[in-house]
Write a structure and sequence with these properties.
By secondary structure, the protein is mainly β. The chain folds into four domains: 197 residues, OB fold (Dihydrolipoamide Acetyltransferase, E2P) (Beta Barrel), CATH 2.40.50.140; 87 residues, no CATH class; 66 residues, no CATH class; 92 residues, Copper amine oxidase-like, N-terminal domain (Copper Amine Oxidase, Chain A, domain 1, 2-Layer Sandwich), CATH 3.30.457. The chain is built from four helices and 38 strands. The strands form nine sheets. It has an eight-stranded mixed beta sheet, with no helix packed on it. The protein has a seven-stranded mixed beta sheet with strand order 6-9-7-3-4-5-8.
C-alpha cells in the first residue's frame, strides 16, 4: 500500500513541477517558458550497464522521493562550476544534481519512476555556479521574466555539440545559462560565463514504443485473458503485469518467428514494447497490454531492436545501421513478404545476432518486421467512424489522411469521382466504386472498392499500409 501511495504522490508531484514555470503570460496567450521539467536531489547509487548509467536520486524533502535516471549517450551532462561537459563515468554518490527531462515525455506509471533525462547538471561542491535552463526572447530575457542576460565578449556561446555560435543564434532556442552572480532586480540581471543553445527544432521520435524487459515469474488466465507477471533483473526489481490479447505481436527472439501466447513459461526472459502514449492506470504493479512481445531462448540470446529508421536505414537514435542482404527476411506484421522499399515510414522490428562496434553499429539483420503504428488519435478516428463491407473494415479517407499529414483533394464533380492524396513525394489517387488505385503512378487494387456514405468517401483499411 505504501508503494502505491508513493507512486501516486510522485506522479502528482511531477505533474505539479511540470506546471510551474512552464508557461509565461504574453498578452492573452500562454507561451512555453521551457520545454523541460526540473527535478533535484542527491545521488545515492550509481550503476553502469552497457551504454547506460543509472543514477538513483533522492530528494531532501520530508516525504523523501526516489527516482531512477537512465543517463545515455544522448544525455547532456555539465558541471555547474566548470561549465564543462562531464563524462558519464564521473557520477558519484553524494553529488547534488538537477535533472531536466522533456515535459511531454511519456512515463511508466511505477514507483520509483524511471526517467531518461535530456540534461543533467552536477553541482560542483568546490566551485560555485548557478544554472538556468529556459527559453529567452530577442532581448535575452527569460520568458518566465526571472533572468535577463547581458552577454559580453567573455561569454562563451556554443551549441550542444560544443561548436561556437553567435549571439543571434540564441533567439528562439532553449538555453543552458551558466552564471555566478545576479542582481536582486526583477528580472535579475547577470553576465553569464557560458551559454549553451539546445536546438528547439522538433525532433522526430526514434520510436513510438517504450521497452520493458524482465523475467516471467507468474502466468495467470482469468476470464480467458492471459497475463504475465514480469520482474526486472535489477537490485531493486520492478514488477509489471502484461495482459495479452489477440492484437499483440509475439515473436521468438532467437528464431525470429511468431509464437503462440499459450507457449509462455515461467523463467523466460522477455522484452515487451508498448505504445508510449498508451493511457495508464495509477496502480502498482502497472498493468499494460503491449503491442509487441519478444521471448528469448535461454540457450542462445540474439538481439532485437524496435525503432524507426531513415532512408539510409540508420535508426533515428543513431545506434544501428542495417545492411540488408538477399538472406534478410522482410515481412509486414501480418507475416506477408514485402520489399525493402516498403520499410520507409514504418516502425521496424529488427532481429540480428551480431553487430560491429562502430557508431552507429552495423548489422546484417536476419529478419525485419515492419509495423504500422496507429497513434491514439488515429485509432480514435477509426473506432468512431467505420463500417464493415463484405467483411472488410471501411475507414473515412479524408479524416485518416489528414491526421497523417496528407493534403486531400476531392473532385466530387468529376465523372470519375476522384480523390487525390499528396504528402511530400507521395501521391495516391483513388476513384470511388473502383477497386484499382494509383500509388506513386503504380497501379494497385483495394480489397474492397471505395464508396460514398454520408457524403464521405470510405476505403478499405489496408490503405494504412502505404499511408504511414
Amino acid at each position: 500500500m505504501k508503494k502505491i501511495y508513493g507512486a501516486i504522490v510522485m506522479i502528482l508531484m511531477l505533474g505539479l513541477i511540470g506546471s510551474q514555470g512552464v508557461y509565461a503570460q504574453s498578452g492573452d496567450a500562454k507561451v512555453e517558458a521551457t520545454n523541460f521539467v526540473k527535478a533535484s536531489g542527491v545521488i545515492t547509487k550509481v550503476e553502469e550497464k552497457e551504454d547506460t548509467v543509472t543514477i538513483t536520486v533522492e530528494t531532501a524533502d520530508k516525504e523523501q522521493q526516489i527516482t531512477f535516471y537512465n543517463v545515455t549517450s544522448e544525455t547532456l551532462v555539465y558541471n555547474s562550476g566548470s561549465t564543462k561537459k562531464m563524462e558519464h563515468s564521473a557520477f558519484q554518490k553524494g553529488q547534488q544534481i538537477d535533472a531536466y527531462y522533456d515535459k511531454d515525455k511519456p512515463m511508466l506509471m511505477i514507483y520509483p519512476p524511471q526517467i531518461s533525462p535530456e540534461l543533467v547538471i552536477v553541482h560542483d561542491d568546490k566551485v560555485f555556479g548557478s544554472v538556468k535552463v529556459g527559453k529567452f526572447d530577442e532581448e535575452l530575457r527569460s520568458l518566465d521574466n526571472e533572468l535577463n542576460l547581458n552577454v559580453d565578449n567573455e561569454t562563451i556561446l556554443e551549441n550542444a555539440e560544443g561548436e561556437k555560435i553567435e549571439r543571434q543564434d540564441l533567439s528562439g532556442e532553449e538555453l543552458i545559462v551558466f552564471y555566478t552572480m545576479a542582481t536582486k532586480s526583477i528580472p535579475a540581471q547577470t553576465t553569464p560565463s557560458k551559454i549553451v543553445a539546445i536546438s528547439s527544432g522538433e525532433v522526430e521520435d526514434a520510436s513510438n514504443f517504450m521497452k520493458f524487459e524482465g523475467v516471467i515469474t507468474e502466468i495467470t488466465n482469468d476470464n480467458n485473458q492471459l497475463a504475465l507477471t514480469v520482474v526486472t533483473e535489477e537490485d531493486e526489481p520492478i514488477t509489471t503485469i502484461f495482459t495479452l490479447d489477440k492484437n499483440v505481436l509475439f515473436f521468438n527472439g532467437t528464431k525470429a518467428v511468431p509464437v503462440k501466447k499459450e507457449s509462455f513459461k515461467k523463467g523466460q526472459k522477455i522484452e515487451a514494447y508498448y505504445d508510449k502514449n498508451k493511457p495508464m492506470i495509477l496502480i502498482y504493479p502497472a498493468r499494460i497490454t503491449p503491442e509487441i512481445l519478444v521471448v528469448h531462448d535461454k540457450e542462445k540470446f540474439d538481439f532485437v531492436k524496435v525503432a524507426k529508421f531513415d532512408q539510409n536505414l540508420i535508426s533515428l537514435d543513431r545506434e544501428l545501421q542495417l545492411n540488408i542482404s538477399k538472406e534478410t527476411d522482410i515481412r509486414n506484421e501480418k507475416g506477408e513478404a514485402i520489399t525493402q522499399e516498403d520499410l520507409e515510414g514504418k516502425e521496424l522490428i529488427i532481429f540480428y545476432n551480431r553487430a560491429t562496434k562502430s557508431i552507429p553499429a552495423q548489422t546484417a539483420p536476419t529478419k525485419i518486421v515492419a509495423v504500422n503504428y496507429l497513434s491514439p488519435e488515429l485509432k480514435q478516428i477509426i473506432n468512431d467512424d467505420h463500417f464493415i463491407q463484405n467483411g472488410i473494415k471501411m475507414i473515412p479517407i479524408r479524416k485518416v489522411a489528414e491526421q497523417l499529414g496528407y493534403e486531400v483533394e476531392n473532385n466530387a464533380n468529376s465523372a470519375q469521382k476522384k480523390v487525390t492524396l499528396t504528402k511530400g513525394n507521395s501521391s495516391i489517387q483513388l476513384i470511388r466504386d473502383t477497386k484499382s488505385y494509383s500509388y506513386n503512378k503504380s497501379l494497385r487494387l483495394f480489397l474492397e472498392q471505395p464508396v460514398l456514405k454520408n457524403k464521405k468517401t470510405y476505403v478499405s483499411e489496408e490503405i494504412l499500409d502505404i499511408l504511414q
